[in-house]
Amino acid sequence: MCLIAIAHRASDRFPLVIAANRDEDHERPTRVADWWDDAPDVVGGRDVSAGGAWLAISRRGRFAAVTNLRGAIKRERSRGELVHQFMTSDVEPRAYVESIDVMRFAGFHLFAGEVGGELAHLSEMPMLLDSGLHGVSNAPHGEIWPKVDLAIDAVRRAIALDDANAIVDELLRFLSTPRHTGKIEHEAFIIGDRYGTRASTVIVATSDTITFAERNFRAGGIPFGDVRRFTFASEDSR
Fold first, then answer.
1. Out of 3.40.50.300, 3.60.60.10, 3.40.50.720, 1.10.340.30, which CATH number does the structure's domain 3-233 have?
2. What does the pLDDT look like over 157-199, one tens digit per residue?
3. Whole-number Å distance between alpha carbons of 2 and 189
4. What is the DSSP string of 8-51?
5. Cα–Cα distance between 209 and 214 in angstroms, integer?
6. What is the rounded distance in angstroms from the CA atom of residue 148 to the CA atom of residue 74?
7. For the whole model, what pTM was predicted?
């Protein structure tokens, strides 16, 4: 995944809103979003090649998302493991990111959190994030690409709609709209024959429900299948 924008406790009605695009080689085997076989309370897509994931949330409100970093040196472990391990554990978000040996993985940005609770981030150093809006892409830690600011602005506008379904629809529209700048740093939606946006995902949580929606794309930015939408009662994990 190459773009993540999160509204963390930025709205009384919506304690969590996530808008994210996964950019990947179109030939890499992938399972579209569904309930996980090895963790039935978790919903998200899965990477078939390494068994990991890029974005997922559970009925208990635990969530995690990861991006790679441009030019990162390849390491022994898959970054997707970081999402899978958090989602199948009970470790608090800050404790989890503090336990990770970053040198075993190629460069990444990782979010791990709980709806209404902690939100932790790890790239070079672990940190606990304040309430508000946060975003990352494939840029190194401390460098902000224009598309991150665009995504944060889109989330800020969307949460003012005051309706979960309207937020989902608006953010899916933003995530799948190319700007035709020719610069990957500016484009939320990447169109390519070999590499590009494979999935757009939006998560909206209220105090008692969670909605997870995913739209999938083939090479050339062509959508396929219906939007996969899961709405379920939230079981507070805190």
1. 3.60.60.10
2. 999 998 999 999 999 999 999 999 999 999 999 999 999 999 9
3. 10
4. ES-SSS-SEEEEEEEEEETTS-EEEEEE-SSSTTEEEEEETTTS
5. 17
6. 24
7. 0.96
